[in-house]
Amino acid sequence: MSKILIVMSAADTWVRADGSTYPTGYWAEELAAPHAAFVAAGHTVDFASPGGVLQPLDAHSADPAVAGEGCAEHVAHAQAALAAFGPPFDLAKVDLADYAAIVLPGGHGPVVDLYQDADLGRLLMEADDQNKIIGAVCHGPAGLLSATEADGSWRFTGRRMAAFTDEEEEIFGTAQGAPWLLAGRLRELGARHESGPAYQPYTVQDGTLFTGQNPASSAPMADAIVAALAASA
């Protein structure tokens, strides 16, 4: 079976446009659901982050009023998986040759650091060059913004993708005062952003690029990636 790399943000704080701070971390469902699907299919999963920093849990993703009644199971799975793995690999030292897929979960962290992380950008462009699977869900697609060519152009211009929508950011209460909004930025740079109803599962596949709109899209996106890996085996 294959090895899959889950790339986490290292950010625990999102600095707002007015200089105030908003605590962030990984979103439990977006890490747990893909991890569970990949392991159940027999794949090995590694974790990496900028500097090898273990990002904290976003407390909102452990709140049933926000993340739904099933969130405790996601939290438990994510925490157990991270504890069993140990410190994440340093993203700068990752060799893409070891992996068949690279997957970016969300939480707001990716709009803090991954969107401009040069090491992630290198890995994503290598993966794209080699037709390896790239997955990103919710705010994870912010990490795709790191894939800039030497001339400054964006590797994923013109590609179809889903991501956390501006409407969903408004509903969540974090749109006002955000330095920038993800879906709008993706469109500005030339992505063919697609979306479904707010907070309902919605995924997009464009070649080997698999994206999901929100936490509820995590499992469907992971299932699509598992199917693609099986088809290519």
UniProtKB/TrEMBL annotation:
Residues 29-227 form the DJ-1/PfpI domain. It comes from Streptomyces luomodiensis. Belongs to the peptidase C56 family. HSP31-like subfamily. Keywords: Glutamine amidotransferase, Lyase, Stress response. Pfam families: DJ-1_PfpI. PANTHER family: GLUTATHIONE-INDEPENDENT GLYOXALASE HSP31-RELATED (PTHR48094:SF11), PROTEIN/NUCLEIC ACID DEGLYCASE DJ-1-RELATED (PTHR48094). This is Type 1 glutamine amidotransferase domain-containing protein. The keyword rRNA processing does not apply. InterPro entries: Class_I_gatase-like (IPR029062), DJ-1/PfpI (IPR002818), Prot/Nucl_acid_deglycase (IPR050325). The keyword Membrane does not apply.
